[in-house]
Amino acid sequence: MRIITDGNISPRTILLDSPSRLVLDLIGAELKSKLQEKTFTVGDEQIRVAQFDTSIVRIVFTGPKSHQREVRISDNERQLLVLGEGSKQKQVVENFNKLLAIKISKTDAKETTYQIDAEKKLNYKFIKLHDPERLVIDFVDTKLTDAFGSNLVSETGHVSGLRYGLATLGRPVTRMVIDLKSKNYTEEFKESPTGTQLFIRILGAGQGISSTNPEADKDPNAVPGENKVNGSKVVIDPGHGGYDHGAIYGGHNEKDINLAVASKVEALLKEAGVAAFMTRAEDRFISLAERVEISNNIDPDIFVSLHSNAVVSNPKMAGLQTYFFSDGGYKLAQFTHKQMVDDVGMPDGKIRKANFWVCKYSKSPAVLIEMGFMTNSEEREKLASDRYQADLAKAITKGIIKYLEENS
Question: Which helix (H) or strand (E) holds 407?
Answer without folding.
Answer: helix 386-407
